[in-house]
Design goal:
238 residues; mainly alpha; Lysozyme; 10 helices
């Protein structure tokens, strides 16, 4: 064995002897790093298994309870909306409803009784605001479902009128609701309609729809259908 080999081995031995602690720490660090890398690689290869293993059964049950509660709340909100239907002067994104079809589910006897009950009120509003009585009465029976709608019976609101925040207005009596309606359709965007004749119910029906009145694009036709069916135009001449 040469002197150079002995000297080299001695130097290495001395280095290890003097730095053995650091060498051990370095080795442990490399080992830990290698294990983490292996674990990361395994997890990448089976991500769904990792997610399943880490999700406890109790958490899954709790989440199901939350989802069920949310679903019940949404169903309740939807039920409430359907119960009170859609405001006559609601948002542009309001659900379209067939008010005439809903009215036709009410017996004609009830419809006729409703028209007789409020005919004089509609005629009185015509004299004061120039709105054809036929238009007021047709709109009232259409949007209150001949008084059978809950908003009409509980709020005396026969036109589904809403306040600034979208809530249905409540009136002390039916007459107050009719008066609020007359004021509404003769002011703001509807004000130009006052230039129409108080006997021009066709012009009023089309003008109201063009200005955003009603809950669907058939409002004018629905009003005209009711006016012709019950000959409400006769009230405009009195």
């Amino acid at each position: 064995m040469s002197q150079q080999t002995v000297t080299g081995g001695s130097v290495i031995g001395n280095f290890i002897f003097k730095n053995w602690f650091k060498i051990i720490i370095l080795g442990v660090g490399v080992y830990i790093l290698f294990q983490k890398d292996m674990s990361f690689t395994i997890n990448l290869n089976s991500p769904f298994q990792r997610e399943t293993n880490e999700k406890p059964a109790a958490a899954t049950a709790a989440e199901k309870e939350i989802y069920t509660a949310d679903a019940k709340q949404l169903a309740s909100q939807k039920s409430a909306l359907e119960k009170f239907e859609i405001p006559l002067f609601g948002s542009s994104g309001a659900k379209k409803v067939d008010k005439l079809a809903e009215l036709n589910r009410v017996s004609e006897e009830v419809q006729v009784a409703y028209l007789k009950r409020f005919a004089h009120v509609a005629m009185s509003e015509q004299k004061k605001y120039g709105i054809p009585a036929s238009i007021t009465l047709a709109s009232a029976i259409l949007h209150s479902r001949a008084g059978e709608d809950e908003i009409a019976s509980s709020h005396n609101n026969h036109f589904a009128l809403t306040d600034g925040s979208g809530n249905f207005q409540r009136f002390a009596n039916a007459w107050s609701g009719f008066r609020a309606h007359s004021q509404h359709v003769t002011s703001g965007d509807f004000k130009p309609l006052r230039k129409l004749s108080e006997t021009d119910y066709q012009g009023w029906a089309k003008g109201l729809q063009a200005t955003g009145y009603g809950v669907n694009d058939r409002t004018a036709q629905d009003l005209l259908t009711l006016i012709d069916k019950f000959e409400l135009f006769e009230l405009d001449k009195k």
